[in-house]
Specification:
A: 13 helices, B: alpha/beta, four-stranded antiparallel beta sheet, binds adenosine-5'-triphosphate, binds magnesium ion
Chain lengths: ~425, ~250
């Protein structure tokens, strides 16, 4: 007999065995379904959790990206012991000339925006609203990769002349003007009249959860002169030419500021540099870990489901001892019996896996209705959940199957 | 002269449990030719079932040699014994041993699932139906064991034993759970099979049943006590007619 026909016979025999297994499972449809339930829940929760994790991750990464492209942020304020940041931007150390020096002296700096910010009462169209007012340079929107939905940004000349012009966030505009067009309208900030020249496009919740659309942006010169009365600025937003220069620029800026603030090497800086790319990387890796953790925790329920299958298979082997004895007596080989029970276990777990994927995708959609982000069902998690459930079937089915195959037919035939 | 279908030489079976040793079979020499119909008798515990299990290749002897159809089987692997059983031996048990919740015809088909070469589905059906016809139960193929009488169940079991056209049918107390008339019917079937050339070995406690065979072996304490040819086997047809007549008379009287 050639190798091919041997394989052919083996396959056909396995098929017959599979047929026997299916009949046994169908005969116990209720029990089979309940047994598979553990796997159904396990797979469903893996698929859902990974989808939710992925969705949250995409959302967070989107928010980090929305900070702007290749952006560095420098905050005034010193780092305290233990690495805890305290009172960022509150220290009175950083000035506009620091920002100008950075723009002038550091390589690959494309744009700089010194930032001052305050919360102020604003009034327009007969309505009052409390919002955050940011003083920025004309390049701020470019740095933050932020578009206007109408109007325009203030110019360099308007910054230099400390013009009373304002660009308003979409939420602020809506609160004050409702459906009316705010462009060209007057806006009073702490009773100082401004002209609205632009409306920002909507950006949604920021990383801290605050609404970025509720704000007013004015030239930093105007803000310092008329609102805060301060010489010092809170932070500097800087755009670097490309991500390749982020680190070197960060280094240079650090050196420059230390020199300008007279901080000898070895002493703590009185400023903090935030690298948008680093934040993105950190946040990315944190959210990946969270996704993984969610997946792993729900993976535990898969294992529990597998144990459930093993349990039922063991019960089933005991219950069907006599059947096994009869099969062996009429000529079933130990391999046939082993395969029969293995196929039963694997079928249960794959059936559970398939239903689990369906329920998981459904649950992910359901979750999507209640959260602000869209859960992303990844094909990878489906393939993984499916192959894991196959593996569980084999792993937890093996022992009962071996036990069944090892039964002594004489003992089995007498079993009551 | 062709070799006997069965040849046992000094067969021993010793069960070892914790402290005790039970010598269930202690040196049995036996030759059974093709076409014989043998009844094995003996008191309880004399080793009849143990011997039958060895003959049926369900168990291996702890000593001696067993040749089935010229092949030495005492040292065969489990897998090879399975193949041998499937091809050459049919079993009939006292308690029928049918798969519950499985139709009669599916029960009869069972051995063919494990046959080499494989049997196609249509052929499985056909052969199972033929076997059911031989035992006179073609009309019950869809019934489950719980829907059948004891005698009918035993006939299904016989059909299952026949379906792979075995050389040898082994029956351990096949009529132990049946009444006299049904027992006679089962014996009628055995006699018909034996007429068709199948070798039959059956264990029984009843002289009435052993009377249907052509040779009677009596065992005691794991040994063969006597081995005699039955010159005048009882005929099932005659016996059934007699039983029916007696029943009628009992009713009239
Ligand atoms: N698995 C076993 N382990 C230990 N001893 C056993 C085992 N099977 C049988 N025996 C012993 O072997 C002896 C023969 O048993 P066996 O079943 O062959 O008797 P038997 O002639 O078929 O009796 P019966 O007519 O009651 O069926 C008995 O003493 C029994 O206790
Ligand atoms: Mg017995």
């Amino acid at each position: 007999m050639g190798a091919f026909s041997t394989i052919g016979v083996f396959c056909a025999r396995s098929l017959l065995t599979a047929w026997i297994s299916m009949r046994a499972l169908r005969r116990n449809a209720m029990r089979s379904t309940l047994t598979a339930l553990g796997i159904i829940i396990g797979v469903a929760s893996v698929v859902t959790m990974v989808a939710v994790g992925n969705g949250a991750q995409a959302r967070i990464e989107g928010q980090v990206a929305a900070l702007g492209q290749n952006m560095l942020m420098i905050f005034a304020g010193s780092r305290r012991a233990g690495g805890v940041h305290g009172g960022l931007g509150s220290a009175r150390t950083m000035t506009v000339s620091d920002a100008l020096a950075i723009e002038r002296e550091v390589d690959h700096v494309v744009a700089v925006s010194p930032e001052v910010s305050t919360v102020a009462q604003v009034a327009a169209n007969g309505r009052n609203w409390s919002t955050s007012v940011a003083g920025e340079s004309q390049d701020y929107l470019k740095i933050r990769d932020w578009k206007l939905s109408s109007g325009m940004m203030f110019s360099e000349r308007e910054v230099r002349s400390a013009a009373r012009v304002a660009v308003v966030g979409s939420k602020t505009a809506n609160e004050l003007f409702g459906p009316l067009d705010p462009l060209g309208q007057s806006l009073r900030i702490r009773n100082i009249p401004f002209v609205i020249i632009g409306v920002l496009s909507s950006k949604g919740a920021g990383m801290g959860g605050q609404n970025q659309d509720d704000r007013v942006v004015i030239p930093f010169t105007t803000a310092m002169k008329r609102l805060t009365g301060e010489k010092f600025i809170r932070s500097i937003n800087i755009q670097i030419e490309s991500s390749a220069y982020m680190e070197s620029a960060q280094q240079e800026i650090g050196n420059l500021l230390r020199q300008r603030h007279g901080i000898p090497t070895g002493r703590e800086d009185d400023f903090n540099v935030f690298n948008q790319k680093e934040i993105a990387d950190t946040v990315g890796s944190i959210s990946r870990v969270i996704t993984l953790l969610l997946g792993a925790i729900s993976g535990i329920s898969l294992v529990v489901g597998g144990i459930g299958i093993m349990n039922i298979m063991l019960v089933s082997v005991t219950e069907r001892t006599r059947e096994i004895g009869i099969r062996i007596a009429v000529g079933a080989q130990p391999g046939d019996i082993r395969l029969q029970f293995l196929i039963e276990a694997v079928t249960l777990s794959l059936f559970g896996g398939a239903l689990g994927v369906l329920f998981g995708v459904g649950a992910a959609h359901l979750v999507g209705m209640f959260v602000e982000f869209v859960p992303v069902v990844s094909p990878g998690s489906i393939v993984l959940a499916f192959s894991v459930s196959f593996g569980i079937g084999v792993f937890f089915g093996f022992y009962p199957a071996r036990k069944a195959a090892a039964l002594d037919p004489i003992v089995a035939l007498r079993y009551e | 002269m062709s070799p006997p279908l069965i040849e046992l030489r000094g067969i021993e079976k010793t069960y070892r449990t914790e402290a005790v040793e039970v010598r269930a079979v202690r040196g049995v020499d036996l030759r059974i030719a093709r076409g014989e119909f043998v009844a094995v008798m003996g008191s309880s515990g004399s080793g009849k079932s143990t011997l039958m299990n060895i003959l049926g290749c369900l168990d291996r002897p702890t000593g001696g040699e067993y040749f089935l159809d010229g092949e030495a089987v005492s040292q065969m692997k489990k897998r090879d014994l399975s193949i041998l059983r499937n091809a050459k031996i049919g079993f009939v048990f006292q308690s029928f041993n049918l798969l519950a919740r499985t139709s009669a015809i599916d029960n009869v088909e069972l051995p063919m699932f494990y046959s080499q070469p494989l049997v196609a589905r249509a052929q499985r059906r056909q052969r199972a139906l033929e076997a059911l016809k031989k035992v006179g139960l073609s009309d019950r193929s869809g019934h489950h064991p719980s829907q059948l009488s004891g005698g009918q169940q035993q006939r299904i079991a016989i059909a299952r034993a026949l379906v792979n056209s075995p050389e040898l049918v082994l029956a351990d107390e096949p009529t132990g759970n049946l009444d006299t008339r049904t027992s006679a019917e089962i014996m009628g079937l055995f006699q018909a099979l034996n007429e068709a050339g199948i070798t039959i070995i059956m264990v029984t406690h009843e002289l009435d049943i052993a009377a249907y065979s052509k040779r009677v072996i009596v065992m005691r304490d794991g040994r063969i006590l006597s081995d005699q040819v039955n010159e005048t086997p009882r005929h099932a047809d005659v016996e059934i007619a007699r039983i029916d007549r007696e029943e009628r008379e009992a009713k009239l009287g």
